[in-house]
Amino acid sequence: MTELNLFVEIAPEVRRALSKGEPVVALESSIIAQGLPYPDNIETALAVERRIAERDVVPATIAILDGKIRVGLRRDELEFLATAANLRKLSRNDLAAALAAGDSGATTVAATMICARAAGIKVFATGGIGGVHRLAEQTLDISRDLHELAETPVIVVASGAKSILDLPKTIEVLETLGVPVISHGQEEFAAFWSRESGVLSPLRIDDPGLIAAAQAARENLGIPGGMLVSNPIRRSAEVPLKIVQPWVDNAVAQAAQQGITGKKLTPFLLNSIAELSGGATLRANKILVQDNAELAARIAVEYTKLRS
Ligand code: PSU
Ligand code: MN
Q: What is the best residue among 108, 142, 165, 285 to mutate for testing ligand 1's pocket, by most ligand atoms within 8 Å of CB?
């Protein structure tokens, strides 16, 4: 492991695993603080950690607490993230300022990747990454998550990108940025709550060992950045795209009417759609994150085998 940044504080169990070359999976905290309501958020945060631990992999949820990048959180700290009012949603642009000021905040996919890299963690699981928003041709709202994947060497396992987004444009930007988008288990890029998006992933790899080897090969060639692994939600839990679509349209229109933009947009849309769907999308979201954690754990195991 490289010399640690003075802002990084790693939990003992995570530190032990990393120093022995054992597998660790990073988890983000924006999904806890902004993505899911209480108590679904704390239940999911704990369930996700259990699913990783069941594979003898160490989970490391990442957040900013009192000016430190904390890698691996205690239960009371997860509870704090799940219940704190108005916790900040930190990304690459404001992460360092928050650390300098001694602030606390939850980390997005982009910020969590930066922190995972600083800690020496190679694999990270979440629900769905951010991407190109609808009407981005007017607003230029494109999540930092996409450029982070191009720059920071972490494998991100997600159920594709959230279907509140423009998925064809998201795939195009990822291609321009040279980010491998790898579907696991099907050809199509996953649409978060739905298995089908109508867009093909450029790559499909079902074997976790080959996914790990692909990232190792990139690093060997000196290609910066990570990869996006698209893991479709299990069939029994999905909400098909044609059912989701009207809720998304409705929520996007409400956001426009109320002038919701920037960091607030994604949490607003997720929350509105959970309400419009009578909780169906929330239930799906909870299940898909757990399944993504399990796949991430399998990839992390394979990655450590390559290194030993
Ligand atoms: N996945 C989820 N729920 C979430 C997120 C991901 O299942 O809330 C969060 C991630 O932290 C992701 C962020 O980085 O949404 C995207 O926000 P934005 O569109 O503002 O970049
Ligand atoms: Mn944005």
A: 108
Q: How is domain 3-307 classified at the CATH fold level?
A: Indigoidine synthase fold (3.40.1790)
The alpha carbon of 93 and the centre of ligand 2 are apart by a number of angstroms equal to 12
Q: Are 112 and 53 in contact (CB under 8 A)?
A: no
Nearest residue to 148 via CA among 167, 127, 130, 169: 130
DSSP-derived letter for residue 225 is S
Ligand 2 midpoint to CA 206 (Å): 31
Residue 275's nearest CA partner among 251, 296, 294 is 251
For ligand 1, mutation pick of 126, 260, 265 (most atoms within 8 Å of CB): 126
pTM: 0.97
Q: 222: left (phi > 0), else alpha (psi -120 to 50), else beta?
A: left
Which residues are bridge partners to 64 per DSSP? 69, 105
95 contacts 114 by C-beta, under 8 angstroms: yes
Quick one: pLDDT at residue 165?
Answer: 96
Q: Which pLDDT score is estimated for 1?
A: 46
- Among 79, 89, 122, 162, the active-site one is 162
Q: Shortest CA distance to 227 belongs to which of 123, 307, 302?
A: 123
Cα separation, 74 vs 13, in Å, equals 11
DSSP code, position 177:
T
Mention every residue, 6+ apart, whose C-beta is less than 8 A from residue 262.
141
Ligand 1 pocket by Cβ (under 6 Å): 28, 30-31, 34-35, 108-109, 126-128, 130, 143-145, 263, 266, 270, 285, 289
3 is catalytic: no
Confidence of residue 97 (pLDDT cuts 50, 70, 90): very high
Any catalytic annotation for residue 275?
Answer: no
